[in-house]
Amino acid sequence: MLNNQVANTVIDHALSLGADFAELFIERNQVNAVNSLSSEVQSVQSGIDFGIGIRMIYGNKVLYGYTNKNDEAELKKIASALAAKDLRDPTTSSTSFNFIEPMELHPVGLPLSQGSEVASKVAYLLKADAAARKASNLISQTRGICMQRQQAIELFNSEGLHTSDTRHYIRTSLTAIASDGSEQATGSRTEGGLQGWEIHEHIDASATGDEAARQALVNLSAQPCPSGRMPVVIGNGFGGVIFHEACGHLLETTSVAKKASVFHDQMGEMIANPAVSAVDDGTLTKEWGSINIDDEGMQTRKTQLIKDGRLTSFLVDRLGAQQTGFDRTGSGRRESYKYAPASRMRNTFIEAGNDSFEDMISSMERGIYASHMGGGSVQPGTGEFNFAVTEGYYVENGKIQHPVKAATLISTGPAVLREISMVGSDFALASGMCGSVSGAVPTSVGQATLKVDDILVGGNA
Question: Rounded to whole angstroms, what are the CA distances from 70 to 16, 74, 78, 126, 455?
Fold first, then answer.
């Protein structure tokens, strides 16, 4: 996407201004989104964006700028403007580019560049809507989306790296709204992966509609949730959002290097119950958070974060490695050319165990089964969180009694890690978007069903 000679000239210019390291990140991003509202198509949107980001590092200081032009003079002008306050004699020289072709771990069948497949996507959404409405006359409305994205990137840096990659993202979702005239409740189902529209051959629109309607109807019949400290069983898949938000961000060198993480000085120490082993893995085939290379050009890998309760690794990008001394883990990520990369999660999850769901429920005298989790808020640095339960049940004397509504889970990441005592075998991943200093990036969260022995539950009973 960018002429090698232009890239070489711009990087040489950046180094002549005294930068220790210089990098060009070129991106062409193509997007198609089909939105439905109940039984009608609400909108079809498509677009292409192109840009180039320039990163210059002076010691531990990062300078970053970007442009939509690939003109050599424009790129050199940006580099000069970035370095205006940090000019110094050259400290390093560039190396000849050596192109590296990344290993393709995620072959695609129907990429966006070959067609947007709007008719097929519309048919999928309308079939899911029909299934949701057929489930009950209490389903008053649905909202659906099929989002497909093709991101082509190219990187050049002053160490001689030249590489490129193309990523194919697809995500579908349907939300159903149930109403009995006095109250409303929602339910949803989302599918996604690092692949093209061929995903529709493996997902069932009717099952999507059925699940969204089932969850909405359960929530419509739910009773107020009791509050107080109690054990909670958290469901698989998106239940892993708590670990991602409250613990995962604390293991990124973005916070570790600043000592803004409570875990910054606990490498090798027990930070969780021995039942907990956690991983961040960018290599999982066609998973939403997977990548062939990170946004610094490094091959992705599997990173064991916690093993049997002991902290074994952080998530480390180039700058994080420079600041902390830990090896890079292929975790440098960014939303687009408008952002400098930072250490970020990919597919982050608690590994499966051997405990049974029945044993978890039967072990609770009084507690909550949070089968589906939603969003929440997290305090950076401490991991203090407040997460909503989108589908939950009250448990008494070891048996599920009835659904509950308006439940929230309140604690801190470090505290929850120590309170996890049982982990099931029903492992699952779920797709989502993660926001941080380098923008919003596709990530997967996951876990098997697990039991937290003690956590504060907020409710309105």
Answer: 20, 7, 12, 42, 53
pLDDT of residue 166: 98
Domain range list for the chain: 224-458
Provide the token pair at 377.
């808020």
Structure tokens at 99: 């192109």
In angstroms, the CA 228 to CA 457 distance is: 5
Q: Calculate mean pLDDT across residues 315-341.
A: 98
- Return the sign of the alpha-carbon dihedral for residues 341, 347, 351, 355: positive
The SS3 call for residue 442 is strand
- Looking at the chain, how many residues does it have? 461
Q: How does DSSP assign 365-408, residue by residue?
A: SEEEEEEEEEEEEEETTTTEEEEEEEEEEEEETTEEEEEEES-E
Between CA 49 and CA 403 the distance in angstroms is 45
Sign of CA dihedral 359, 363, 365, 369: negative
Are 423 and 355 within 8 A, CB to CB? yes
pLDDT value at position 383?
Answer: 85
Whose CA is closest to 67, among 30, 25, 7, 31?
A: 25
Please identify which residue in the block is written with the tokens 């489930």.
Answer: 135
Mean pLDDT over the full length of the chain: 97
Q: What is the CA radius of gyration of the chain?
A: 24
Residue 200, SS3? Answer: helix
Integer distance in angstroms from the first to the last C-alpha of the chain?
59
Q: Give me the amino acid identity at 186.
A: T
What residues form DSSP beta bridges with 51? 27
Residue 34 near residue 58, CB atoms below 8 Å: no
Q: Which residue has the tokens 């079939």?
A: 127
Tell whether pTM > 0.90: yes
Q: Are 394 and 232 in contact (CB under 8 A)?
A: no
Q: Which two tokens stand for residue 401?
A: 């009694």
